[in-house]
Specification:
About 50% of the residues lie in helices and about 15% in strands. By secondary structure, the protein is α/β, with parallel strands linked by helices. It contains twelve helices and eight strands. It has three domains: about 130 residues, P-loop containing nucleotide triphosphate hydrolases (Rossmann fold, 3-Layer(aba) Sandwich); about 55 residues; about 70 residues, Orthogonal Bundle (Arc Repressor Mutant, subunit A). The strands form two sheets. The chain has a six-stranded parallel sheet with strand order 1-8-4-7-6-5, with helices on both faces. The radius of gyration is 24 Å and the shape is elongated. Helix 1 packs parallel to helix 2, helix 6 crosses helix 7 and helix 11 packs across helix 12.
Length: about 260
């Protein structure tokens, strides 16, 4: 088996983000795979671009999640190529690949980065392992620009995205980053009544105990403490601005330490 370590950003409208050297190499490798008749397995964390890369390689092939076992078997009856995602969820990998091999069906598959199976090693002649976005800061910057443009089109606004204190959420790579950009873009010019409505909608199904005021007070305290520390740089100044005793502020910070 040939194991290739690659970094691949998300694909939007068939265009790869190639800000990093590894992403540029990934594009070249994927382009080469488009011309070959070999099976390839693309592994990596959620949101690193596995599905997008698979679709780039086989743009016209049906794409099915491996958990849809019966649908895959039915699809294999009438195709010569297929994309199977989340291979780790498959009920019977052996039967699927026995059919694919017998009928000379090309397979491009995706799987979790830690996934291993002996049958997979025999079937796939090329394995692409895609690193997380945390290892590709150049791609993160370009993805933020792309997602901001998406947000601008989606919300019909042309506001400049405020990146000064923006810390990319890469916990789920491009998935979490896109969500974060969308939310931040929408909220950066939010009005008080809109913010109140959001909190109201959040709380309406969560209220019901006898101590809810105390239970949800952190929704107010945490953002005002974090914003205050960010703006005034010290607890002393913040306690003065908030009209709180310094010891009271310290206690509130300690009580909410897991969020700060």
């Amino acid at each position: 088996m040939i194991v290739v370590a690659l970094a691949v950003a998300r694909v939007v409208d068939a265009n790869y983000i190639t800000a990093s050297a590894s992403s540029a190499q990934a594009f070249k490798t994927a382009t080469l795979l488009k011309t070959l008749s070999v099976n390839a397995l693309i592994t990596g964390e959620v949101g690193v671009g596995k599905r997008s890369l698979a679709r780039y390689i086989l743009p016209d092939a049906p794409m099915l999640d491996s958990s849809n076992y019966n649908e895959i078997l039915k699809t294999l009856e009438g195709v010569n190529k297929i994309i199977i995602t989340n291979l780790e969820n498959s009920q019977n990998i052996k039967k699927i690949f026995d059919i694919a091999t017998a009928n000379n069906i090309r397979v491009i598959a995706t799987a979790n980065g830690s996934y291993y199976n002996e049958i997979v090693d025999k079937i796939f002649s090329i394995k692409l392992d895609i690193p997380s976005l945390s290892e590709r800061p150049e791609d993160v910057k370009e993805l933020i620009k792309k997602f901001v443009n998406e947000a601008s089109l989606l919300f019909g606004q042309k506001d400049e995205f405020k990146v000064k204190n923006f810390k990319p959420d890469l916990s789920q790579n491009s998935n979490s980053l896109r969500k974060q950009v969308m939310i931040n873009y929408l909220l950066q010019n939010i009005q008080e009544n809109e913010l109140i409505e959001i909190i109201e909608n959040y709380l309406v199904d969560k209220l019901g105990s006898n101590n809810d005021y105390k239970n949800f007070l952190h929704l107010y305290e945490i953002p005002i403490i974090k914003a205050g520390l960010q703006r005034f740089k010290s607890q002393l100044q913040l306690s003065d601005k908030l009209g709180l005793n310094r010891n009271t502020l310290r206690k509130k910070i300690a009580d909410n330490s897991k969020y700060l």
